[in-house]
Amino acid sequence: MAKILLINPNKWGRGITHIWIASHSGILKRNNHKVEFFDSSFYQDWSVNEIKFQTDNKMYKKTNYDDFIKFNRNNIFKDLQNKINKFKPDFIFWSAISSHIHGEGEYVNIQNGYDLLKNLELKNSLLITAGLQATSATQIIFGKMSKIDYLIRGESELVLLEILNNFDREKNIEDKKKSIEKVKGISFMKKNNFFQNEKQDLISNLDVLCPYDYDIFDDQVINRPYNGKVVKAVDYEMSRGCIYSCNYCVETIIQNYYGFNLSSPQSGAIKNFKKYLRAKSAKKIFEELSYLNKKQKVTLIRCQDTNFLTNDRSILLGLANLIDNSDLDIKIYIETRPEGINEKSIEILKRLKVDGVGMGVELSDSSFRENELNRFADQQKTINAFKLLKENNIKRTAYNIIGLPSQSEKSILETINFNRLLNPDNITVAYYSPYYGTNTQKKGREIGIFDEYEVDVDSALRSKSRSDDILPISKLNYYKKNFVSLVRESNID
Asked: Which of 62, 374, 425, 480 has the fewest other C-beta atoms within 10 Å?
């Protein structure tokens, strides 16, 4: 059996049960490979305090989260080196695409993981990584991170399994490497030459990946602040894909890679989306939720499906029937779009024990949103969705963006006023960051308004001005820090 070390290069100072870790660990273990795990989540010398930052600007409600967390004061690099020395892995793997709603966070994982490994003694371990950067910026990654042996583009679970199986089958290291080099979906450097194999197929049946391995996470990683309380929660996916192609979304990286890059100019929906959307069966979902609830005492599922309500209605109803006839004690938080919220979907959400819904408001300027972002969202439907959810006691979170090219102060204030009209339970705001490989970034790069590539794209404001009507960084920082407070105020000039 091959030995593989999975690394979670999380540096946000809070628990993140990355879905890709659970999905890859599960299928590798079931195929008799030896898996160990190194989690960087709570190292004092590595983590930033994201919780405090988000609490200070009122995007998170204050909790006693710190009482549930114990930070490791050891040197993270020494601990990781000791792990490698003891385990002697054949492979070290980090970052992957499993669900795309957290693609922004997953985007920087390759750099974070490499920062952990680049100065260590890696013995004979082969380095493999995957994910959004690996898919969109393959050659750039090799240029910046020379120790990486293989990149997996696109969905990686079955590709990684094939790599380990091929490695296991051969006897000497040269034959093992030759066997790996035949696998679809990988890129690699050999004698200073770049090789890129043909792409792998989408995983059409997500059931083959089940069950995901959540046992790999420590208890404190599962503790999560949520609506002013600390609960046991995990990130989870029921489906993959989205029917829409919003230009700024990391989903477009995957859509483009697999050839789903044509969309309707009226709705922004991709063509042939039925082939792109895939979901686990109701039976598999229920089995996984039951295990998490009964064995790990999880009470909140943070469902990371890119657009939950585009799931096949028969699967959602099947899952609802299974939940109706069980003692499952669990709540679900989902992400979706306002146009999917209606009386019929509300009834399904209630049966599924959906406690919270997050929806992208982005900005109130519908013309800019449609023309520049390919994001079609009727304002009245958004208002109706927030109202209907409130009437049914389902918590609502509004996601907003500021710092778009040429965005004026007036535009930000209009967005703040629109949020006041919606009156969501929770509000988040982020800088506009067109990640490398998205449609917006490609277009912007061509006309010189976005940087070619940045390491810390998760927090960097990367847009440049297209006109003189742009706010200084200090003003943008003010609105980002005070956005929630301004929404909650009674008047805005």
From this structure: 62
